[in-house]
Amino acid sequence: MDDLEQFIHDLPLRNRVFFALVEATASLVDVSEQYWQSKGLNGARIRLLVEIMKEGGTILPSTLARKIGVTKSNISLLLSPLESDGLISRKPHPSDGRMSVISITAEGQSVLLQHLPDNRQLISNKMQQLSEEELHQLLALLHKLHQA
Predict the structure, then answer these.
(1) Cα dist. 17→30, 54, 92, 129, 131 in Å?
(2) Rounded distance between C-alpha atoms, residue 148 and residue 142, angstroms
(3) Under a CB-based contact definition with an 8 Å cutoff, are residues 63 and 51 in contact?
(4) For residue 29, which of 17, 15, 16, 47 has the smallest C-alpha distance?
(5) Residue 52: left if φ>0, alpha if ψ -120 to 50, beta else—which one?
(6) Beta partners for 92?
(7) Global pTM?
(8) Is residue 99 within 8 Å of residue 40, measured between CB atoms?
(9) Burial 116-143 (b: 16+ CB within 10 A, else e)
């Protein structure tokens, strides 16, 4: 049992920082998810819509899968409810009929426009615990970790 303690309680600094980062992220995600649930929406689905918008409103399913870290087969399962709700549409690729292209619909854009401002403000309020200097420092550190 003592051997296990070193992996549970006696963590080196790098591991403690990692788990603190995970816990802080989970806390912020929870704030955001509670907002979406209070509106009868699903945060994971909203993320898909946001990622589609980041690409100009149209994206290949394989690209979207890569961006959110799921397999190509799982992306179809994630997109189906959005399509059923009329928030996205699937159309054949213009030059390769074997592929499809995902586009956000006007209704999907309307959902984002209606709810993103309040969601973003909620997150911003949570982040007010950090000064502007600390936010810039944290952003630089996170970018450095992401590039590693």
Answers:
(1) 20, 30, 46, 18, 20
(2) 10
(3) no
(4) 47
(5) alpha
(6) 100
(7) 0.84
(8) no
(9) eeebeeeeeeeeeeeeeeeeeeeeeeee
pLDDT of residue 21: 95
Contact yes or no for 51/57 (Cβ under 8 A): no
Question: Which pLDDT score, from 0 to 100, does residue 142 have?
Answer: 94
DSSP 83: H
Residue type, 52: I
pLDDT, position 11: 84
Q: Residues near 59 by Cβ (< 8 Å), separated by ≥ 6?
A: 51, 52, 101, 102
Nearest-angstrom CA–CA distance, 33 and 87: 19
Q: Say what the pLDDT of residue 35 is.
A: 96
Q: Are 87 and 106 in contact (CB under 8 A)?
A: no
Q: Which residues pair with 91 in a beta bridge?
A: 101
Residue type, 95: S
pLDDT of residue 2: 67
Amino acid at 123: I
Q: Is 9 exposed, middle or buried (0-12, 13-18, 19+ CB in 10 A)?
A: exposed
Spans of the chain, pLDDT less than 70: 1-2
Mapped onto helix, strand or coil, the DSSP state of residue 100 is strand
